[in-house]
Amino acid sequence: MLKVDNITKYYDNFLAVDNLSFKVSPGEIFGLLGVNGAGKTTTFRMIIGLLEPTSGTVTLNGKKIDYSVTDNIGFLTEERSLLTKFTVKEQAIYYGTLKGMNKEDILKRLDELLEKFGITEYKDKKIKELSKGNQQKIQFIVSILNKPKLLILDEPFSGLDPFNVELFKKQITQMAEEGSMIIFSSHRMEHVELFCKKLLILKNGKDVLSGNLADIKEEYRKKNIMIKGDIDIEKIKKIPGVINVESKGLEYEVKIDNMDIAKDVFKVVSKCANITKFSVEEPSLNEIFIAKVGETYD
């Protein structure tokens, strides 16, 4: 288990992370979210041992994270961190060696992953010769060469088309099923919702919302009603507790202040013609994020 226990980090007088705590269990994909400057990168660096917390502790399976345990960690950074003059093979050997792997195991694992991601022909190509999407694939591959027990993924789908996003998703899910602890950070909230059952949202280095995603959505009072049919928009807007009515393709989205308003909306809608859908739905994670942080996650 990864245990982050009351960590605080100051840079001189600037408070970057404020008394942060969370746990990630084997087989769990944990979402760590926040806008730029929220403290995510500092938190990641403290977790992998690049920075020492001003106070608090980080442990992996009960042990302080230092060079004796970093071979069990993988980290895909948001920024490209590849050596562009190296070939893919050379990059893998360099990174794998740093992680304590022998050359034979590195090359065997590399061949396996290159085949899985459909880029075996790039093994002897230099990193700088690859497209941004294929560079992202290589960056991901080298971060999981060592089959890490703890994997940190910061914007892993950057530069990828939908087909390759699916390849990444399958690999990440497989690693979780095999017992890896995964911290997942992305500005694409639909990806976070797909992967993460637990999450934490940072603002100014502080935990402003955390817990099980299902519970967070249940406790968030505002709901959405999706309606398909010929509705009287202006009449619905006048219902107390209706926040907004917006056209969404062939449907209308009615945002309501709480679940109790749904019955009032239904009374009006039931008198309209050609109603083929009336569905009360939980808000999206993106809506909750904006409500808690006050801005979109770009």
Describe this structure in words.
This protein is of the alpha/beta class. It has two domains: 2-213, Rossmann fold; 221-281, Alpha-Beta Plaits (2-Layer Sandwich), CATH 3.30.70. Helices cover 33% and strands 31% of the residues. The protein has ten helices and 14 strands. The chain has helices spanning 40-47, 88-98, 103-116, 132-143, 162-177, 189-195, 213-219, 233-237, 262-269, 285-293, and strands at 2-11, 14-24, 29-33, 55-60, 63-64, 73-76, 150-154, 181-185, 198-203, 206-212, 223-230, 242-248, 251-256, 273-281. The chain has a six-stranded mixed sheet with strand order 6-7-8-3-9-10. Helix 5 links the parallel strand 7 and strand 8. Helix 2 crosses helix 3 (103-116). 31% of the residues are buried.
CATH architecture of the largest domain: 3-Layer(aba) Sandwich
Cα shape: globular
Q: Structural class given helices, strands, pairing?
A: alpha/beta
Strand order of the largest sheet: 6-7-8-3-9-10
Succession of helices and strands: EEEHEEEHHHEHEHEEHEHEEHEH
Poorly predicted residue ranges: none
Number of domains: 2
Could you say what the CATH topology of the largest domain is called?
Rossmann fold
State which percent range the strand residues make up.
25-35%
Cα separation of the termini: 30 Å
Query: What's the helical proportion of residues?
Result: 25-40%
The biggest beta sheet is recorded as: 6 strands, mixed
Radius of gyration: 23 Å
Q: Would you identify the CATH H-level superfamily of the largest domain?
A: P-loop containing nucleotide triphosphate hydrolases
